[in-house]
Amino acid sequence: MSAPPRVLFIADPPEGFDPEADSTYLMIREAQRRGLEAFVATLDGLRLDGTRPVARASLVEPRGPKGRLAPAGEPRLFGLETCRVVVMRKDPPVDDAYLTATWILDQAKGVTRVVNDPAGLRTLNEKLSILSFPDLIPPTYILRRIDDLRALLRQLGGKMIVKPVFGYAGREILLAREDDPNLGTILEIATADETRWTVAQAYLPEAAEGDKRILLVDGEPIGAVLRVPKAGEIRDNFHAGGTPAATTLTPRDLAICAKIGPFLSRHGQYFAGIDVIGGYLTEINVTSPTGMQEIDRLESRPAEATCAARFWDGLLV
């Protein structure tokens, strides 16, 4: 009897996946529901044997009352050509280890399907790729000198957001105000004393109501959730304490998706999450976008229509 088709996730340790919050958890459980063997490898489990990409990975299974994932037996060593699909879901940072993993995964593209495409992951910085759509985004600048940031702040009316080019999970997102006595310190932190570039973006008042995370599969929107910041906080990421609220896709949202979708497809980004505030595109997330669990719960989606089901429907054709 032949073994079930194998799928491999490149991710953080599976024991840490929250069954009630993580999208990767849902992807794995949906794969298992469909009769697939789901393996997980961390970055250090990847290697090249010559030009053959190989993984040391663990078959995972749910255990306990909450269904947390745990390894089923010892890790196995196998070539990526034995996998039906390889899913790259390692959380940022996008550092040298992450980049090296994408080069290893480049070698797998001719022998299996890899999502998201590793070349696209290298190309599409999640903060800067929005610059391909100047008509959809708020005024956005990439600056390094503090004097330049102060001048821009005056130009933007005395209020703007600064965030790291390689930031993630809401880390180091700062609100710069011209009347803030700590402005100098904020700009020093944002630029690491002028040793790195920072993304400076016009402040959108609608941000106080939250930002809309829209998930796309194969360039098409599959759902959205509003991330609402907690009181006294400018960040609305779930990692930073934001709370989910039901939302709908407006005509403007759909127009943004219609422009973004073909761009993502050209770069091989099968699964992505875009962020929209006040009708403006602010980020394009391709490394490990989340939001599946919140959308499914808020919309009470049946099993065949969950975000994870939509994800696999497009892959297993």
The structural domain count equals 3
**Roughly how many Å apart are the termini?**
23 Å
Number of strands: 17
Mean pLDDT: 94
Which range best describes the helical content: under 10%, 10-25%, 25-40%, 40-55%, 55-70% or over 70%?
25-40%
* Main sheet attributes: strand count, strand direction, barrel closure: 8 strands, mixed
Structure characterization notes:
The chain is an alpha+beta fold. It has three domains: about 5-125, Rossmann fold; about 140-205, Dna Ligase, domain 1; about 205-315, ATP-grasp fold, B domain (D-amino Acid Aminotransferase, Chain A, domain 1), CATH 3.30.470. Helix content is about 25%, strand content about 30%. It contains eight helices and 17 strands. The chain has helices at about 25-35, 95-105, 120-125, 145-155, 185-190, 250-265, 290-300, 305-315; strands spanning about 5-10, 35-40, 45-50, 50-65, 70, 75-80, 85-90, 115, 140-145, 160-165, 175, 200, 210-215, 220-230, 245, 270-275, 280-285. Strands 1, 2, 3, 4, 5, 6, 7 and 8 form an eight-stranded mixed sheet that branches. Strands 15-14-13-16-17 form a five-stranded antiparallel sheet. Helix 1 (about 25-35) crosses helix 8 (about 305-315). The radius of gyration is 20 Å and the shape is globular.
Features:
317 residues; 25% helix; alpha+beta; globular; Dna Ligase, domain 1; 29% strand; D-amino Acid Aminotransferase, Chain A, domain 1; Rossmann fold
